[in-house]
């Protein structure tokens, strides 16, 4: 027989529920500066940065059975089925040992969003949205120089279309729930980070 406290701490099926992690979704068009700003946030606050795109690219490199499918979809600017991406995110969450995550570039469509919510039961604390013009994003992507197969003008145009048609509705969904923190991302990196910093600073204590 367990104590009352033990009983209260157990889930309905008797398992001990894991502590709910804090998740911030970091969204914005391709080249809006998600990865750049996530690196800054990690330096200042106790977060683990999980880039869905980086996890998918690592999966291609690892020689996984899904590698070719992922590679073809990325080259076409298409969004990989959530089943694949969510497994990678879950594994990275478990391996991190942290309980605060910046999930960068996910959810990118309604299917990503709904599946993540039902599989993990996690609701984001808020959504950081980098609002940037296509003109500026195109310029940045064409000079990113990371050797990415999708940073060519043909794929970039496809990615912009997918962003408008599939990813913006996810941002609107969270906006209707008052969860979106919109940041003007056209400005220089340091200025964008000043705004980002002000969003995180009151909520999360600084790492020493
Ligand atoms: N505010 C900014 N002003 C100018 N260039 C930027 C800015 N933020 C990021 N960049 C550059 O633009 C490119 C895309 O940034 P990145 O962080 O990879 O964006 P995302 O992850 O949203 O695609 C990179 O080469 C990066 O150095
Ligand atoms: N949730 C996601 C995130 C990325 N992808 C795929 C499709 C995207 O065009 C590529 C690249 O994503 P990534 O976030 O690295 O790209 P950007 O940083 O926005 O330029 O990965 C996906 O299929 N599903
Ligand atoms: Mg990125």
Automatic annotation (TrEMBL):
ATP binds at residues 31-36, 144, 187. CDD domains: ADK. It is an enzyme of class 2 (transferase). Pfam families: ADK. GO terms for cellular component: cytoplasm; nucleus. It comes from the Eukaryota. Belongs to the adenylate kinase family. UMP-CMP kinase subfamily. Monomer. This is UMP-CMP kinase. It comes from Lupinus albus.
């Amino acid at each position: 027989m367990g104590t009352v406290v033990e009983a209260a701490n157990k889930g309905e099926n008797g398992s001990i529920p894991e502590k709910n992690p804090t998740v911030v979704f970091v969204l914005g068009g391709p080249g809006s500066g998600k990865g750049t700003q996530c690196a800054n946030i990690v330096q200042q606050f106790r977060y683990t940065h999980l880039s869905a795109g980086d996890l998918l690219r690592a999966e291609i490199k690892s020689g996984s059975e899904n590698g070719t499918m992922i590679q073809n979809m990325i080259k076409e600017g298409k969004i990989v089925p959530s089943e694949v991406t969510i497994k990678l995110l879950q594994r990275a969450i478990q391996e991190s040992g942290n309980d605060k995550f910046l999930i960068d570039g996910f959810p990118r469509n309604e299917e990503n969003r709904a599946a993540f919510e039902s599989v993990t039961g996690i609701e984001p604390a808020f959504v950081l949205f980098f609002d940037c013009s296509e003109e500026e994003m195109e310029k940045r992507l064409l000079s990113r120089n990371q050797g990415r197969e999708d940073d060519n003008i043909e794929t970039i145009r496809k990615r912009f279309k997918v962003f408008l048609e599939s990813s913006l509705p996810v941002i609107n969904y969270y906006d209707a729930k008052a969860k979106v923190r919109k940041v003007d991302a056209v400005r220089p990196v340091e200025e964008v980070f000043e705004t980002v910093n002000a969003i995180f600073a009151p909520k999360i204590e600084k790492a020493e």
